[in-house]
Amino acid sequence: MNELEMSTKSATIATGFSRRRLWTARGMYGIVILFMLFDGIGKLAKPKQVIEGTLELGYEERHIAVLGVLGLICTILYAVPRTRFVGALLLTGFLGGAVAAQFRMDNPLWSNTLFPVYIAVLAWGPLWLLDQRLRNLIWKRH
Length: 142
Description:
single chain
């Protein structure tokens, strides 16, 4: 057995998952967390583009910081392994509001309106990959 096979086997034994599955999940977590941090911090910093975009969606400027804080709270809960499931639930609700705002403005479906859905799928993907309980909840075989 070569060194790569041994390290893959030891990683599988330690976590119960293949190395590929583990790194795919970590990558998905990272994409979601980085995107949501960028979004939340951008809302708190309030550059001109964020203000204009938020106003175009029908929100007032005073709502931007609140949306940023809520997004960051959801993201922090998602980033902490112990609260990841609750964070994913809250992120899904938060992103559902973004879909509603985009839909209300009659923005393009595949690029603007469904973009938060893509992020939500990325948020739930790692939980699906790494949590047998979630897979059993949805696809339980009798």
